[in-house]
C-alpha cells in the first residue's frame, strides 16, 4: 500500500448549517462511498478527518453532537483511522503525516467538504509535503462564496490545483483505471500461466 484516501470533513456539522441547502452536491456521501469502496478494493489506507472547533458552541463544537460522519456514509472499518482537526488542512493539527509515513504512503486521493477550503488546503499542504495528490472534484462539494457560484468556485479550484499541486480526476475515471488494472492483471496471469 502506497496510497491513501483522505475523506475531509464529510460530517453532520455541515448539514446542521443553513448553508447545507445551497451545497452543490448534498448527496456527496454517494460519491465518497464509491471512492472508499475503490480504495478498499485496491488495498489503500482510508482516513477520515473531521473538523472541530471545541468550545465555540457552533455546529463544529464536539459538545453539540454534530462532529460525526454523515449518517449515510459507509462506516469506517476497524483499522481505518478517524482523526479530528482544528485547522483547515488535515495535517497541521493531526497525526496524519505520521500515520501516512508509518504506512509507507506516497500518494493521496482527496475528497470532501468544502472544495475550495479544507479539501483544497489539504491538497496543497500534502503536495508541499511531497505526496502525489489526486483531487477528485466530483467527490467534493461547496456552496457559493463571495459572489461566486459553487460551479465557479469548483472551476477555479481545479484551475489553480491542476498540474501544480494535484492531478484532477473524477470518481468514474478512477473506477475505470481500477478496472483496467484488474484487466491487465488478469491478462498478465493468463500469459504467465501459459
TrEMBL record:
Residues 4-143 form the Isochorismatase-like domain. Transmembrane segments: none annotated. Keywords: Hydrolase. InterPro entries: Isochorismatase-like_dom (IPR000868), Isochorismatase-like_hydrls (IPR050272), Isochorismatase-like_sf (IPR036380). Signal peptide: none annotated. This is Isochorismatase.
Amino acid at each position: 500500500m502506497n496510497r491513501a484516501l483522505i475523506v475531509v470533513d464529510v460530517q453532520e456539522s455541515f448539514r446542521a448549517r443553513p448553508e447545507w441547502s445551497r451545497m452543490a452536491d448534498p448527496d456527496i456521501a454517494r460519491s465518497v462511498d464509491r471512492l472508499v469502496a475503490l480504495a478498499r478494493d485496491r488495498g489503500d489506507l482510508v482516513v477520515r478527518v473531521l473538523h472541530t472547533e471545541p468550545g465555540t458552541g457552533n455546529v463544529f463544537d464536539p459538545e453539540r453532537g454534530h462532529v460525526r460522519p454523515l449518517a449515510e456514509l459507509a462506516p469506517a472499518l476497524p483499522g481505518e483511522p478517524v482523526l479530528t482537526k482544528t485547522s483547515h488542512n488535515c495535517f497541521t493539527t493531526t497525526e496524519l503525516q505520521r500515520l501516512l509515513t508509518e504506512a509507507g504512503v506516497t500518494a493521496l486521493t482527496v475528497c470532501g467538504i468544502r472544495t475550495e477550503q479544507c479539501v483544497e488546503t489539504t491538497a496543497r499542504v500534502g503536495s508541499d509535503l511531497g505526496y502525489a495528490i489526486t483531487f477528485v472534484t466530483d467527490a467534493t462539494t461547496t456552496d457559493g462564496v463571495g459572489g461566486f457560484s459553487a460551479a465557479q468556485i469548483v472551476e477555479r479550484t481545479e484551475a489553480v490545483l491542476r498540474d501544480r499541486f494535484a492531478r484532477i480526476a473524477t470518481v468514474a475515471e478512477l473506477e475505470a483505471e481500477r478496472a483496467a488494472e484488474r484487466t491487465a492483471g488478469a491478462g498478465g496471469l493468463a500469459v504467465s500461466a501459459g
